[in-house]
Amino acid sequence: MTEGQGQSSERKVDGLILHELGQEVVVPAGTRIVTQGETPEFFYIINSGRVKVFRETADGIRTDLTELATGAYFGEVALVTGQPRTASVETMEESNLIKVSKEEFDHLLDHNPQLARHIIHQLSQWLITGDRRLESQVVHQVKLRQISWFDYFLMIGLSIVLALVVNLYNDNKIPLIQDWGAKVAIPEITLQQALEAYQQNKAIVVDARKSAFYNQQHIKGATNLPLVLFDLMFPLFQFTVAQTEGAQDKTIIVYGGSFSRRFDLELARHLKQKGMDKVAVLSDYGGWLTTFPLEGQKPKAAPTMPLGIPGYIEWLPVGIFALILIPAVRRSPYLSMACRLILGFIFISFALSKIMRPAVFALNVVDYGMMPSWGVNLWALVLPWAELVVGLFLILGIRTRAAATLIGAMNIIFIVGLVNAIFNHLPINCGCVGEVGEPVNWWKVTKNTGMLVMCAQVFLYDRFFVLDRGGFTLRERKI
Amino acid sequence: MNKPYLKSAAILGLLVMGLVLGSCGESRSPFAGTYRSVEPFAGKNYIDLDLKEDGKGTWTLAGKTVEFTWVVNDGRIWIYTKSGAILIVTPGNGGKMLSADMSAEWHPGCPPGSCVTFRRVPEGG
């Protein structure tokens, strides 16, 4: 097909008088004149009107090739090559066409070298344009599949910078490393010394953990003063200590039992700052479990609170398991796009709930008992920003493969944390959305595994609505 | 900036706006007032709770007062202190009673032993 320069009144194509050829037909708008794949019979010249030329794949992906108007012609490629039609043609408005049969077309070519040359020229142009288009598509696809260290550097770097800058101006800001360079030094006491003081009634033992941990197991007779509620409960603790006989001679031994030492060290520091001088922490943070007499109740599920809309959306990844088992669906770019949007929404909403109160999230991190002290605040500051940045990248379709691997990595870390909490009977909730969270159980692990599968889906098959290197790829491309 | 970029920016803007609006609190006025714990906390001292309508409040126990801010979300009162303490308080009996969860687990369940119940103190009383 090509665009001619003649006018319909003359019925000319590049100087060829056509009034003695073909048959004039009027075609209403929206009529398909030529169908891709059918055997060619006619060559068409547009007397008046407009048509659209397009190709369509078996799974329905349509590529618009061009639009032709008055004076243009189409249908010559299949007639010249003898192959089935290479594209479909549809009228965009009521059009007046000259329909030339194959015999008449062959006769035209035989007796009109000018038209033959013109068609050869157009076919050559087509080949050149086609090659360029193919190259550009291949380059675009290759670039989409590329993944570089820069992508990770960009997302992680952006998250760190945003976390640090926002923390500077946040009313609820936290130090990057808790107690780093703290002026109030906390003396440590060995387990043996602590046990002796305890047995001789020369110690007030304080459990700094949340009450669920305390209720599960604690040193017999210990007082629970959760660090989380320190300022609200300290007055009562102070009152209790004042009522205790010989309190001024007793050492307040604080224990927390956490790998990060967050609860015991911080509570001891708070007590010192409130004027209690004889405060010490255990040198072996977990040793009390085997040294002191214990009391407690049977482990029970931690109290939880529904997550709201993100909680319901979190169930979608589990449903997507079933879809992904079907190969044709698995390869669908629409499924990948849905996965991207769902993951993006979940992670952005989770991030927004945590960003402004990093101290709360830090204590949730401590609950899992897997993070060393120096890493707790850094993790609590940067992770919500990483969730936000990566979530935005997924929704906007920027560097989606790298974003999917980062979310996948976060999910693996969450899954490891959840499984660890389940096996150790930790009385915690997931801490996924700020201060609330769902129970830590195998269903929660399944949801996170579902999200991990969605990440793999995005990594392998994502290619639509991608705002990435090489332009914006849409469902229906105009070339 | 071309159209796809504008479309994406508009969608993103709506999404963020929805999330921000969705996280806004509810009216505080039904719960503003002064409350006192029904029983002495841990059998020792009463707690006085003062919720002001401007979102500020005080918690007084054993003669010591702690200031905090509070919001109402999903029908529950969330109390935030400067140092990071969070209490979830569930109103009952039309706002005349409050149940505060002292388990430090930030849930409204108020398990026995970790629950403090407050009663509204009548104005002037």
As a percent range, the share of helical residues of chain B equals 10-25%
Query: Which spans of chain A have pLDDT < 50 for at least 5 consecutive residues?
Result: 2-12, 470-479
Name the chain pair whose interface involves the most residues.
A-B, 43 and 40 residues
- What is the CATH architecture annotation of chain B? Beta Barrel
Side-by-side strand order of the widest sheet of chain A: 4-9-6-7-20
What would the average pLDDT of chain B be, to the nearest integer? 78
Helix run count of chain A? 17
Specify the biggest β-sheet of chain B: 8 strands, antiparallel, barrel
Largest sheet of chain A: 5 strands, mixed
Radius of gyration of chain A: 36 Å
Average pLDDT metric of chain A: 82
Distance between the termini of chain A: 15 Å
Order of helices and strands of chain B: HEEEEEEEE
Kindly estimate the percentage of residues of chain B that lie in beta strands according to DSSP: 35-45%
Distance between the termini of chain B: 65 Å
Low-confidence stretches of chain B: none
Count helical runs of chain B: 1
> CATH topology of chain B, which one?
Lipocalin
Number of strands of chain A: 20
